[in-house]
Amino acid sequence: MNAPVINVHGTAIVLGTAGFLITGPSGSGKSALALACISELRRRGRFAALVADDRVDLTLRDGRIVARCPAAIRGLIEIRGCGIAKVETLSACVLEWAIMPVRTPFDPRLPPEEEELQLDIGRNLPLLRVPVEGPLSPVDALAALLPRNLGL
């Protein structure tokens, strides 16, 4: 029997050794954040890759959330205002965290403790809010926020 699949609005990436689901409303900067993180980690000599942009298929396997890209959009990412670009992708990843891009002014200034992204798949993901503008790079913010560096 196949595990149920849910399709969510978001972007799935792998940074270092961890899978992330970038979530947020349309226009919040999910694709731009994904490209920025992937590019910066690669410049640092670390592994980073796109799994899916805009729509992500999620399944629960052995208690882990697996992300895959719907076939119709595999290898594509939107660069807002510029168009759709073709990029190299991974076929799947195990998600460990969710990321929400935030812009100043931050509201609330501090996020709720132990915030989670609610998913209709039988398990939630811990949620990190990451600034997408300002002097701090998103990768540096993630490295500071994560309980272990994950190879960032």
Distinctive features:
mainly beta; 9-stranded mixed β-sheet; two-stranded antiparallel ribbon; 2 helices; 11 strands; 39% strand
Count of helical segments?
A: 2
What string, H for helix and E for strand, traces the elements in order? EEEHEEEEEEEEH
Average pLDDT across residues?
91
Distance between the termini: 37 Å
Beta-strand segment tally: 11
Strand content: 35-45%
Helix and strand content put the structural class at: mainly beta
Question: Explain this structure to me?
Answer:
The structure is a single chain. This protein is mostly beta strands. Helix content is 14%, strand content 39%. Strands 1, 2, 3, 4, 5, 6, 9, 10 and 11 form a 9-stranded mixed beta sheet that branches. Strands 7-8 form a two-stranded antiparallel ribbon. It is globular and about 45 Å long. The model has no long low-confidence stretch (mean pLDDT 91).
